[in-house]
Structures
1.
Amino acid sequence: MSPSPVYEATCTAPVNIAVVKYWGKRDTSLILPTNSSLSVTLSQDHLRSLTSARCITSGGADARDRLWLNGEEEEIKQGGRTERCLSEMRKMRKEFEASNSSLPRIADFPIHIASENNFPTAAGLASSASGLSALIATLSTLYALTPENGVSVSDLSRIARQGSGSACRSMFGGYVAWEMGLKDDGSDSVAVEVAPVEHWPDLHALILVVSDKKKGTPSTAGMQRTVATSALLQHRIKEVVPARMQRITTAIQKRDFDAFAEETMADSNQFHAVCLDTFPPIFYMNDVSRAVIQLVTELNRASVEKGEGVKAAYTYDAGPNAVLYVQEKDVKQVLELVLRYFPQTTESFPDPFNLGAKPASDVPQG
Ligand code: DP6
């Protein structure tokens, strides 16, 4: 008797950090955003999700979809985001099987999924982005729904988006836009590559972990409170973001760090202003976050005065942790300055001088 075949796949996907933030949905079920956004995908070396999926071919009591996150089993809720991603991928696999009689019929098998992050989950470090992106990358490998078989990365991003909005951007490495799209069915709300990592490889992201505690207001709930109550958000989505998307895309194309930094910091500031304009207000930054902003501002002021240009750009997501974008030539100086004013208090993160997180082109990986 020949052994039954094993259908399984493992992929990793990295975190992305937005420089033009996504904040607000016009459709909460399909996850369609109120504005386009743009991010840099980081290297997988330091912040990534690793996900394995296996088809359960044997039947029995275990023959149902199951999910483990960081070793703990999580319920896959009916109609929830994971279930939606699974059923969309299954649907595509079924169509593929229907069009190709030589393919094994695996679409209807239950799936067991195990995923782990190598960084604190839900601490404002975009864990949902890497997690859902890794899930879609893994299922696309398992089901052979790949560019060679006519399924583009943007097609996959449309499904990752339904798991978590920001996840669609982690499907690409380098510099990535999530185009909000105009259609009600979300078919044009996809991630697209703005530039590969090789285009501007000397841009580094320094992640200053101010706190690795779980954040107070989850993004999903926070952004809808903003949509419901903030007048400033309407100004942002209509008047500010469309022009900023164009300017920052040009800055990336020209590798113009000063312009990139200006737009990045302005957008982070406006995102947190919009959170403050929400009722009840949402506070993601703390005193340390604000002190980091002051330090970067002072560093840039002194540097520009000397004719040396901008040294660092800060940005903050839905938590107090700072991400600083810095050019390679300035990494040492900026790190030394940060460590002088904010000495490390924890051993749990490795020596920052050996880190140098970089945008990555090699994502997602099988
Ligand atoms: C502040 O993608 O986590 O990081 O779509 O509800 O899952 P859901 O939200 P999520 O929100 C990310 C918000 C942000 C900004 C960004 O990454 O663009």
2.
Amino acid sequence: PQEQTLAVIKPDAMEGHKEEILGEISKGGFTISHLKETVLTREMAEEFYREHREKPFFSQLVDFMCRGPCLMLVLTKENAVEEWRAMMGPTDPEKARETAPQSLRARFAKDVLENTVHGSSDQQHAAEKIHFIFGDISADSDVLNE
Ligand code: CMP
């Protein structure tokens, strides 16, 4: 069955790797069913990452995510959540370079904060974050999947 995930190309990568990452997404067999370039407000970034609000790096994370445009994507594929996470590689690019050298974070990320891309951790988060960013798109995806 087809699955959806929310992918984000973060501000660090928008500054020079956007086209290459979009090329990898397409080569990876994902369908981009929705896409939106946006500069997050602080309120939106805080809400988007609310699961992390107690973390010591939360305010840095919010600053970083608001620094410039992000590209928000809904990716559709069989097993999309896991496949996109594999394509991103581990959160920390140092670890990614050791264990997943072909991954996007291994190739493009600067450090554990400015790590190039985001992807939902499971299907429930995917549904929540897609709704948060794109609103109610369930009707459109039905049309696309017919
Ligand atoms: P992401 O997968 O989008 O989810 C949470 C984000 O917080 C993560 O990518 C990084 O951008 C950031 N992050 C995670 N761990 C750390 C850390 N130890 N220090 C700074 N930023 C972090």
